[in-house]
Amino acid sequence: MADPTIQMFCCRHNNRTDMAIIIMKEFNTDVYNTVCMLSSMMGILGAIYQVLPRETSTYQHRSSSFSSSRGRQIIIWLAVADLFASLGVFVRSALWMNFKNIMPMENDTKSVVFCALSSAWTQYFFMATWIWTLCYAIDMKLLLNEKPGRPSWYHMAAWICPAILTTLGLSILYIPDANCHESVTLTMAVLRILPNYCATYILMAAVMIGNPLLYFSSTKDLQTAVTCSLAQVTGRERKLVQTIRMKFALINLVYYLCWIPNLVNGILLWTLWFHLPIKVIISLWYIMAVTNPLQAFFNALVYQQWRRRERFRLWYRRQNHLSSRDTKQENYDEFTEISPLLMPQYEHYTPHTSINGSSSL
């Protein structure tokens, strides 16, 4: 999982009575690491599925092809960040099970370094996934308002901001001697431990707030685009809007499902610092071990094209001569998220197409 609590366990433990030692007495590390490995493996598979090259149908409208490519790039970078984050969780858990101590002792420098570096790796890439998720919502808003995307800005935000936040938070926590448990006073906790929690949770919460607002606004733009493009709203257009609204809702639901347990864990830690409900905290750790790496798997479900079969590039080329008729029939006769504004009879209108090619308008 990507949580500042794990990063605190990377500190040296000189005080045998601190809360971390007490919690670890009731914590089954082998089960925890097994859960992390299983969920991260599913996340890796989901991320790989997302980055595999797709083949664009030859019958797709040129505007749909452009916006599909535009959104596809964001989805690929989101999947790449998910892939490296899940891979970090998998490797860390595998090594913890076989070679390293999950909680370093006083003179165990190697375990401290490994724990700190692996935790920084996973936190960095999970933070990047949060920003790419926000960038997708921002680009959707820009696209529906017929404004160009800002890919260079997206990359700067997604790769530089997590680096700054991760470096600042973990530097304050570990420097100079990786001994963040030397005192149990509230002052020490606020000065040394709280900054890392703030660096993590403020960004996480900002995406939780920003994404629904952006998608709500995009839905209104979508309804306006339907009305202006066709000057009418029939059952077909209503179904299209409902489908895309559902997709927006599921994207938000996946993000909340994967990261709300982390926020709850942080709130409990800081509101009940000296009287922690240990069993509740441990239960939340297991939940986070499942939900955090599974973000990539869930993203593979909600970001894919709906109501149309996706064809991978190599497979498509081998089967193209067998399925060309089916492809044409599928693109023009079956109601999908690409219709109705991309049909030939409406080509003189300016279509508004979803940035991942999975919806129109």
Polypeptide structure, described:
The protein has 361 residues and is an all-alpha fold. It has a single domain, classed as Up-down Bundle (Rhopdopsin 7-helix transmembrane proteins), CATH 1.20.1070.10. The chain is 71% helix and 0% strand. It has eleven helices and no strands. Helix 4 runs antiparallel to helix 10, helix 6 packs antiparallel against helix 7 and helix 7 packs antiparallel against helix 8. It is elongated. The two termini are 38 Å apart. The C terminus is likely disordered. This is G-protein coupled receptor 143. One of its GO terms (molecular function) is L-DOPA binding. Keywords: Membrane, Transmembrane, Transmembrane helix. It comes from Microctonus hyperodae (Parasitoid wasp). InterPro entries: GPR143.
Which keywords apply here?
disordered C terminus; Rhopdopsin 7-helix transmembrane proteins; 361 residues; single chain; G-protein coupled receptor 143; dopamine binding; 71% helix; transmembrane helix; mainly alpha; elongated; L-DOPA binding
Structural topology:
Layout lengths: L3 H6 L9 H6 L4 H23 L10 H37 L10 H36 L6 H24 L11 H45 L4 H37 L6 H14 L3 H8 L10 H21 L28
Helix pairs in contact: 3-4, 3-9, 3-10, 4-5, 4-10, 5-6, 5-7, 6-7, 7-8, 8-9, 8-10
Quote the beta fraction: under 5%
Radius of gyration: 23 Å
What CATH calls the topology is Rhopdopsin 7-helix transmembrane proteins
Helix percent band: over 70%
Find the count of extended strands (DSSP E, 2+ residues).
Answer: 0
Global shape: elongated
CATH class: Mainly Alpha
Counting DSSP H or I runs of 4 or more residues, the number of helices is 11
Q: How many structurally independent domains?
A: 1
End-to-end distance, in Å? 38 Å
Order of helices and strands: HHHHHHHHHHH
The main β sheet shows up as: none
**What are the low-pLDDT stretches, counting only 5+ consecutive residues below 50?**
58-66, 321-361
Residue-averaged pLDDT: 77
* CATH architect. name: Up-down Bundle
Q: CATH superfamily, called what?
A: Rhodopsin 7-helix transmembrane proteins
Classify the secondary structure makeup into a structural class. mainly alpha
Protein name: G-protein coupled receptor 143
Transmembrane segments: 31-52, 73-91, 111-132, 153-174, 194-216, 248-274, 280-303
GO molecular function, one term: dopamine binding
Keywords: Membrane, Transmembrane, Transmembrane helix
